[in-house]
Write a structure and sequence with these properties.
The chain is α/β, with parallel strands linked by helices. The chain has helices spanning about 15-25, 35-45, 65-70, 90-95, 110-140, 145-155, 160-165, 170-185, 190-209, and strands at about 5-10, 30-35, 50-55, 80-85, 100-105.
């Protein structure tokens, strides 16, 4: 686990909360516990990394309500839901709401540890993709609007003549723009260019999912 990652436990039952924290702590995971969803939201910071271990049924805001709010606020912490009410409709609803895993109480220790490992790996991958996309956006910002248009079409597999036809310019002008794009982005091949474009587009899609 990366040192900055934390397992945030949101559980109204103090005994369950303490046992989960103890188990995870014994296996080297850093934890922070909250007795309700409202307490978590009150202190949440965008810089937090890790995952959320979330009880489904709690007084006040339920786990499902918190899940929905996290998606609305584009908070991408992976969510593992735990509950004593594991019927099929509930599981389906939780997973459709974006949870990465679902565990029934009493929680099996091995299943919990496996779920936490997976969630933290997901968090690391999401954050890496976001950093790559930010770097890509900074690089793309040096392009003119026309160069960006040419780049987008080239990245989609258009040949020079097809790009020229789509934009109403000559193939020679397309070649000039393409050469400038490659120079400004410091890439040597179209495949490198495609990787930059896909990295930015992939992060945008992830933020909307």
């Amino acid at each position: 686990m990366k040192s900055e990652q934390t397992v945030f436990i949101v559980e109204d039952d103090a005994a369950v909360r303490d046992s989960l924290g103890l188990l995870l702590g014994l296996h080297g995971y850093r934890t922070q516990s909250f007795g309700c969803a409202e307490d978590f939201l009150q202190v949440y910071q965008p810089s937090w990394a890790g995952c959320l271990l979330l009880d489904l049924k709690m007084p006040g805001m339920s786990g499902l309500d918190l899940q929905a709010l996290l998606r609305q606020k584009e908070i991408a912490l992976p969510v593992i839901v735990i509950t004593a009410h594991g019927d099929v409709p509930t599981v389906r609803t939780v997973l459709k709401s974006g949870a990465v895993d679902f565990l029934e109480k009493p929680v099996d220790p091995d299943a919990l540890l496996a779920a936490v490992r997976g969630a933290l790996n997901t968090d690391s991958a999401q954050r890496h993709a976001a950093r790559e996309a930010e770097a890509g956006e900074r690089r793309l910002a040096v392009l003119t609007p026309r160069e960006r248009q040419v780049m987008d079409l080239v990245a989609r597999g258009y040949h020079n003549r097809e790009v020229a036809s789509a934009l109403g310019i000559s193939p020679r002008t397309v070649e000039v723009h393409k050469a400038r794009v490659m120079e400004k982005l410091q890439v040597r091949s179209v495949s490198d260019l495609v990787r930059i474009v896909l990295g930015v587009a992939g992060a945008d899609e992830l933020s909307r999912s």
